[in-house]
């Protein structure tokens, strides 16, 4: 259970981030860092068991019918990445407390960083492939918001990173579904233990390829490497945490976790080694080309990740163990360097090494810490970076035949360039004459978070043998064998060790590149590739937008026919497809009743009236009549819930339509007889097709097996007798919650798009003409309380009788409409749509969380209330229904709030029959010049 408590602690950090920030500002980073350490301590309490060769587990059932659970599993591999996610995360939170300005939105940043850390912890501990994917994708979403947090200039890099990594998420989802299909389980431990089933499947190449693609996008491997340097527009703490220690390591973790089933496939080794080597070389070269310290570290990260991916591709026990070690050492020195670059930027006001020199005289402690991390990155003894690099040489040489030496030579070349840019960073910032003498070292509290991993890289390099148990267990968990060992050592086996001389060669070549830095720099500055990843992405992105623009062009038309083209064309295409596919067998229909034909006759009359009227209001009214007739038919067929919903929807539709029609002419524009005749013919033909299809496809169908199950089992399983409501809030509650979220997003979009104020001369105008408000005010005082009471009654009884949250919200919305009618636009409703939407989603989540006590999210908890002869069933579904009520009501209030802004009196409405004045074609002298037609920026509002 300690693993579950560790995850809960991180969730608490997410929830407390904003309250703590309101109380302590940027210093909230310290208590949040404390929560990170508490979570890490809980995980480390199981470390002795893991280091002894065991595992720690925990399970929390999520979807029992599919055997999907929040299965948590701590082994050597997950322990390594947990220490990275939480340990480095705690340091970054402490660093933020000094890096951020007092005016920054600390709560948002701390919340997103904590959520990201929670997702990383959940991902590395997941023993279920579904939850692993969910956490994997949460990291993508958090990364998007963290990269794009600073403004519009960050929107494009954030979008670029999101699109690329999200495509990898889709690939991982496909791989997860294929694994589920092949193995019949989502339990990751069972899947890996039964690797033979996966490898013998014809889907094995697809699964492995999709996993590789997901990891390549997440870990910025060629040709997707370009998004990572682009993402360095984010804050330095974000770059230090996401793009050095955690996010980019998510792809590494996925590759290592799934490597065992695919290591013996030639294509797995070939792709990973080839992609990794290309990435490590181009990343190193581009890093050497940079003058901006942060850009240098970004390309360095790309290079180091390529090194790790190539090691995973080698696939031997030694290579997989060293891959984990290098991921660990890289996180230490790169987190230090990113934090120190942030310190330099804050103190010196620049990250360009051409503007920095001699800082060691004024910032000695910063210089020492930078030297520790840079030498570890360069692979110099006795740092941990040296051990991971030299052990990597041993691993590359394990490739068969001459390939070991070829790959080893490429690795040496890459490491030599790494050595060169490490010293370029160190020398460029700290050596030479001091240009800025008024600087000084940052406060100890600012430097301390960077000092911890820097010193750790030195001490762990000196005493690397103490890491053998951890990385032995890591490789054993990766290859699923207790006979796998790494054998880490600072000293080489002998003076004749090939890896030792490869290290010597690396240093010699690196020193040569550094000594010739000026001609090398001039040559690299002339190196401009004709094609770059960013250009290819932008061209592809623009092409997709053009294609979507072409597809969506009809939808932007103001003509109704353009919007009807696709749905009506689809109906016609289906009708033509029926005879081509053999037709459909039609059985004898049941006998019609007289009342059926009565409703049909009235509906026909209403449709005819709709077609002949020229009044827009009249057309809306006739549409409402047709809707009420359909509701009446539902009542005749026993669908009381449907009838209630239909009637309230029709009333609200008419009310909202009237608000919209206020700005349109009272009558439709004249239409030629030819066009009316053509529209009539199309309407009749398509109406007959749709009617026949409805009759054939649904009118003859008996209750399916699933429908009969709901009829028989609803009361026992959900505690309700209203079948429709029980399906919505119990059996399909998660679907309903998703639809609630969509409604909330639609309402927010409505509020955002129509947020303009009414013109000043219209604010005081009411929605109806003067003199008409007396009746409305009187009716409002009587009807609003009655309708509100009916709405609450429908909500209360919805689980047992016709009603429920949706229809009760629509009824309550009628009360809002009536209360709103007599009021002017300058007196908006006291109901705040955003508050209602937030309340709806929060209440629904709370109801779902209560269901966890029953076993899974949204599971209903039922009970009863008995007082004498009075009996009332109770269920948590009522709480969920209350969330539906608030969300739907929030949407309606949002629509009313926006559509009632400014009424147009009768005298201001356009007359379609009126002819333009004689001077209409003349330019107006008081009209603004097109160049002056720029958006006005109001002080205090975002541009």
UniProtKB/TrEMBL annotation:
Residue ranges of domain MrpA C-terminal/MbhE in the record: 675-764
Ion transport as UniProt keyword: yes
Where in or outside the cell? Cell membrane; Membrane
MrpA C-terminal/MbhD domain location, by residue? 602-666
Q: Provide the alphabetized UniProt keywords.
A: Antiport, Cell membrane, Ion transport, Membrane, Transmembrane, Transmembrane helix, Transport
What is the membrane topology listed in the Swiss-Prot or TrEMBL record?
Multi-pass membrane protein
Q: Residue ranges of region Disordered?
A: 906-943
Residues that span the membrane, as ranges: 27-44, 76-97, 109-126, 132-149, 161-183, 203-228, 265-288, 295-314, 320-341, 362-383, 403-426, 446-467, 495-516, 564-584, 596-612, 619-636, 642-661, 673-697, 736-754, 775-796, 802-822, 834-857, 869-896
Domain (NADH-Ubiquinone oxidoreductase (complex I) chain 5 N-terminal): residue spans on this chain: 60-106
Q: Name one GO molecular function term.
A: antiporter activity
Pfam families the UniProt entry points to: MbhD, MbhE, MnhB, Proton_antipo_M, Proton_antipo_N
For this UniProt entry, what's an example GO CC term?
plasma membrane
- NADH:quinone oxidoreductase/Mrp antiporter transmembrane domain boundaries: 126-408
Question: What InterPro entries has UniProt attached to this entry?
Answer: CPA3_Na-H_Antiporter_A, MnhB, MrpA_C/MbhD, MrpA_C/MbhE, ND/Mrp_TM, Proton_antipo_N
Domain Na+/H+ antiporter MnhB subunit-related protein, residue spans: 775-893
- Please cite one Gene Ontology biological process associated with this protein: monoatomic ion transport
The entry's protein name is: DUF4040 domain-containing protein
Q: Which organism is it from?
A: Nesterenkonia sphaerica
């Amino acid at each position: 259970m300690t693993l579950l408590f560790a995850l809960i602690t991180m969730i608490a950090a997410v929830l407390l981030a904003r309250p703590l920030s309101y109380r302590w500002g940027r210093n909230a980073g310290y208590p949040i860092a404390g929560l990170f350490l508490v979570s890490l301590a809980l995980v480390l309490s199981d470390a002795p068991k893991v280091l002894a060769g065991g595992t720690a587990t925990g399970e929390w059932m999520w979807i029992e019918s599919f055997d999907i659970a929040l299965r948590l599993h701590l082994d050597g591999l997950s322990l390594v990445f947990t220490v990275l996610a939480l340990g480095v995360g705690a340091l970054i939170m402490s660093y933020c407390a000094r890096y951020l300005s007092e005016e920054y939105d600390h709560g948002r940043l701390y919340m997103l960083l904590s959520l990201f850390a929670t997702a990383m912890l959940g991902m590395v501990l997941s023993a279920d492939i579904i939850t692993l994917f969910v956490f994997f994708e949460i990291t993508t979403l958090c990364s998007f918001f963290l990269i794009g947090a600073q403004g519009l200039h960050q929107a494009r890099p954030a979008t670029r990173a999101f699109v690329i990594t999200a495509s990898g998420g889709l690939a991982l989802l496909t791989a997860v579904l294929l694994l589920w299909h092949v193995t019949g389980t989502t339990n990751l431990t069972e899947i890996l233990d039964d690797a033979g089933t996966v490898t013998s499947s014809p889907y094995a190449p697809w699964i492995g390829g999709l996993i590789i693609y997901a990891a390549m996008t997440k870990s910025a491997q060629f040709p997707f490497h370009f998004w990572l340097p682009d993402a360095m527009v984010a804050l330095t703490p974000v770059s230090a945490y996401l793009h050095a220690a955690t996010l980019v390591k998510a792809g590494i973790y996925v590759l290592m976790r799934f490597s065992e089933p695919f290591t013996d496939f030639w294509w797995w080794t070939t792709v990973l080694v080839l992609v990794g080597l290309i990435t490590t070389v181009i990343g190193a070269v581009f890093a050497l080309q940079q003058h901006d310290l942060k850009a240098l570290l970004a390309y360095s990260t790309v290079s180091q990740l390529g090194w790790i991916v190539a090691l995973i591709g080698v696939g031997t026990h030694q290579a997989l163990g060293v891959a984990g070690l290098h991921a660990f050492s890289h996180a230490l020195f790169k987190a230090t360097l990113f934090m120190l670059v942030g310190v330099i930027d804050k103190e010196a006001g620049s990250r360009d090494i051409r503007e920095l020199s001699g800082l060691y005289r004024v910032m000695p402690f910063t210089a020492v810490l930078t030297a520790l991390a840079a030498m570890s990155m360069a692979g110099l003894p006795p740092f941990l970076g040296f051990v991971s690099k030299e052990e990597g040489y041993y691993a590359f040489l394990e490739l068969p035949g001459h390939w070991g030496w070829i790959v080893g030579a490429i690795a040496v070349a890459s490491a030599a360039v790494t050595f060169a840019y490490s010293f370029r960073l160190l020398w460029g910032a700290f050596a030479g004459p001091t240009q800025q003498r008024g600087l000084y070292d940052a406060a100890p509290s600012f430097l301390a978070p960077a000092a911890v991993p820097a010193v750790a890289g030195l001490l762990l390099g000196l005493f690397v043998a103490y890491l053998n148990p951890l990385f032995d267990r890591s490789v054993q968990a990766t290859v699923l064998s207790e006979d796998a060992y790494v054998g880490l050592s600072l000293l080489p086996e002998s003076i004749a060790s090939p890896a030792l001389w490869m290290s010597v060669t690396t240093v010699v070549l690196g020193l040569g590149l550094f000594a010739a830095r000026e001609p090398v720099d001039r040559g690299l500055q002339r190196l401009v590739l004709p094609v770059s990843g960013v250009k290819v992405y932008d061209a592809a992105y623009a092409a997709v937008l053009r294609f979507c623009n072409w597809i969506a062009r009809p939808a932007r038309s103001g003509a109704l026919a353009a919007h009807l083209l696709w749905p009506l064309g689809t109906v016609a295409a289906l009708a033509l497809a029926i005879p081509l596919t053999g037709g459909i067998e039609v059985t004898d229909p049941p006998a019609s009743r007289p009342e059926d034909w009565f409703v049909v006759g009235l509906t026909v009359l209403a449709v005819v009236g709709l077609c002949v009227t020229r009044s827009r209001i009249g057309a809306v009214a006739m549409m409402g009549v047709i809707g009420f007739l359909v509701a009446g038919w539902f009542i005749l067929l026993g669908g009381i819930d449907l009838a209630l919903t239909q009637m309230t929807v029709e009333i609200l539709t008419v009310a909202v339509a009237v608000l919209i029609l206020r700005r349109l002419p009272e009558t439709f524009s004249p239409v030629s007889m030819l066009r009316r005749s053509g529209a009539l013919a199309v309407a009749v033909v398509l109406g007959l097709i749709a009617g026949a299809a409805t009759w054939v496809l649904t009118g003859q169908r008996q209750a399916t097996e699933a429908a009969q199950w709901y009829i028989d089992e609803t009361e026992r399983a959900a505690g309700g007798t209203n079948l429709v409501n029980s399906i919505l809030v119990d059996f399909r509650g998660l679907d309903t919650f998703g639809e609630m979220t969509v409604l909330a997003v639609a309402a927010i979009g409505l509020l955002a798009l129509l947020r303009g104020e009414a013109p000043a001369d219209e604010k005081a105008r009411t929605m109806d003409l003067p003199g008409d408000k007396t009746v409305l005010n009187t009716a409002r005082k009587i009807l609003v309380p009655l309708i509100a009471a009916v709405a609450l009654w429908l909500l209360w009884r919805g689980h047992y009788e016709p009603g429920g949250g949706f229809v009760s919200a629509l009824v309550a919305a009628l009360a809002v409409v009536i209360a709103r009618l007599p009021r002017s636009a300058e007196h908006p409703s006291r109901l705040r749509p955003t508050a209602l939407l937030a309340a709806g989603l929060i209440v629904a989540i709370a109801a779902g969380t209560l269901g966890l006590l029953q076993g899974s999210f949204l599971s209903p908890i039922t009970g009863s209330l008995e007082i004498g002869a009075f009996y009332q069933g109770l269920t948590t579904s009522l709480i969920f229904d209350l969330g539906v009520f608030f969300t739907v009501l929030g949407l309606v209030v949002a629509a009313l709030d926006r559509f009632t802004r400014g009424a147009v009196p009768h005298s201001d409405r356009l007359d379609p029959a009126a002819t333009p004045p004689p001077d209409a074609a003349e330019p107006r002298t008081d009209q603004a010049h097109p160049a002056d037609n720029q958006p006005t920026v109001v002080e205090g509002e975002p541009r």
